[in-house]
Amino acid sequence: MKKTLVAALTVATVTASLVTVTPPANAGDGVGAGIAAGLIGGAIVGGAIASSRPAYGGPVYVAEPGPPPPPCYWQRQRYWDGYGWVVRPVRVCY
Fold first, then answer.
1. Where does the UniProt annotation place the signal sequence (predicted)?
2. Are 94 and 75 in contact (CB under 8 A)?
C-alpha cells in the first residue's frame, strides 16, 4: 500500500510541475542576439584575416654558419660593492 501511495504522489507531483502555467519566453528587443552574432562574426572574420597573412611578413632567411666564435675564459675581477672590495670570477668573451 505504501508503494502505491508513493507512486501516486510522485505522479501527481510530476504532473503538477508540467501543468503549471509559465509566462511565454520573451527575447526582449534582440540585443542579446545581436551581441552573440557580433562576437561570432568577429571571431570568424578575425580568424580569416589572421590566417591569410604569413607570419612576420614573409620568408625567413637563415645565415650560413661562419667561423666559430673566439673562446671564452674565466678571469677574477675585483669591484667595489659600496661596503668594500669584492673579488668574483667573471666570464670574458671576445
1. 1-27
2. no
